[in-house]
Amino acid sequence: MAKRDDPETIGRRVQQLRHERGLTQRQLAEPAYTPAYISTLEAGRVRPSDTALRHLAERLGVAFDELATGRPAHVATDLRLRLTEAQRTLATGAAQEAADLYAALLAEAETYGLVEERATALLGLGECGLDTGDLTAARRHFERAEQALSEADAPLPARVPALRGRAVSHYLAGELRYAVYLLESTLDELNRGGLHDPDALLLLYASAIGPYMDMGAHARAAQAAEVALALAPQAGDPALVARMHRQVARTLVAEGRLAEADASLAKAAEMYRQLQIRTELANCHWMRGYVYAQNGQLERAEEELRAAQTMLSAKRAALYSSQVAVELADVLHRRGKSDEAGTLLRDVLGDLSSERGAVHAAAAHRLLGRIAEDARNTDAAEEHYVRALSLLERAGAAGDLADLCRLLGDLLRRTGRVEAALDAYRTGLGHRTAPGTTTLGPAPAQPPL
């Protein structure tokens, strides 16, 4: 039940409704109460009990909630239906249009004090921010949603989508370690507290795979994928299961199980087609392009990545589109189309930074460095490698750092700077940890599967 208004507000509301219906205080009061009680109530000098409010609501011909809160009958139901429509709009990839809908619904929910609906609107605005690449706004919306639910004493599983949204916004901003901290601490609290909510757990484990992989914590990513697959049959949200399959594919690729990764992505893509979730379908094309690139099937990789970029660009998903462009440029470079790759990278670098897609920004500079090396422009190559190194160090992307230090060390050695090359190699060795060993601390407690 929503929070009741103060006695003075309720008193004014009762008086207004009584006048509109042409009732005297005696007619409103009888047979259970006295005219004096109604007079005191309308003056705001008494807090009416639920029993009194139900009597008055019946005599005035309004719902109990409307009298107690000023909220018209059925407004919550109507608002939930329109929130579902906004969610469908976002699913088509029309993030800006969806954001406008969510903003209007948020204002309405706040007007009527509807906490759950307000949180849902804020979550929707956060997801719109992720799609458009406005990570600061997205994080702010997720934080507000979490705060609203906390103030309403919502259980932890109900707050998980907001916590996961915060983690993803930090992950996309290149703050890998903090993203993992948010996900793992929430998982630990759920599992240790015995709060076995399959949807909440699946959302968290699937979301942890990406930052684990980028940090070089392959064993922990594989463990998260294993738990996610075990949870999937218990989950009630098919879109969530499809997202899980897309994330699990990353661990399968890392283990060399490319056919299984492709099968997992095909399953996810089919589910997204049925659910008509266009942005996630584009992400499946993106991931399949990555799988084909890892398998040396460069022509198919290019087709999938171009399809993903076209779909994301059409829906103005700027950050995701730029990230796909970097991976497409890598495939083009490997196919001998270095000029086209370089042009593509320079076009999207303005959309990427240390606070927005840091890992892909580093990948873009790394690839531009390789292209410059091929053109025997060692100064430009070194500049790009150093910029990539700075981005990766800030993000904590250990696996990519080790490889980049090797490239930079090789370049420095070839140009006669042996001591500088040794420093680069040592830096790389410091990040070349054994699979699954990180400084993350103990893994979160496991759910009782």
From TrEMBL:
<dbReference type="InterPro" id="IPR010982">
    <property type="entry name" value="Lambda_DNA-bd_dom_sf"/>
</dbReference>
<feature type="domain" description="HTH cro/C1-type">
    <location>
        <begin position="14"/>
        <end position="67"/>
    </location>
</feature>
<feature type="region of interest" description="Disordered">
    <location>
        <begin position="429"/>
        <end position="449"/>
    </location>
</feature>
<feature type="coiled-coil region">
    <location>
        <begin position="258"/>
        <end position="318"/>
    </location>
</feature>
<dbReference type="GO" id="GO:0003677">
    <property type="term" value="F:DNA binding"/>
</dbReference>
<dbReference type="Pfam" id="PF13181">
    <property type="entry name" value="TPR_8"/>
</dbReference>
<feature type="compositionally biased region" description="Low complexity">
    <location>
        <begin position="433"/>
        <end position="443"/>
    </location>
</feature>
<protein>
    <submittedName>
        <fullName>Helix-turn-helix domain-containing protein</fullName>
    </submittedName>
</protein>
<dbReference type="Pfam" id="PF13560">
    <property type="entry name" value="HTH_31"/>
</dbReference>
<dbReference type="Pfam" id="PF13424">
    <property type="entry name" value="TPR_12"/>
</dbReference>
<dbReference type="InterPro" id="IPR019734">
    <property type="entry name" value="TPR_rpt"/>
</dbReference>
<keyword id="KW-0175">Coiled coil</keyword>
<dbReference type="InterPro" id="IPR011990">
    <property type="entry name" value="TPR-like_helical_dom_sf"/>
</dbReference>
<dbReference type="InterPro" id="IPR001387">
    <property type="entry name" value="Cro/C1-type_HTH"/>
</dbReference>
<dbReference type="Pfam" id="PF13432">
    <property type="entry name" value="TPR_16"/>
</dbReference>
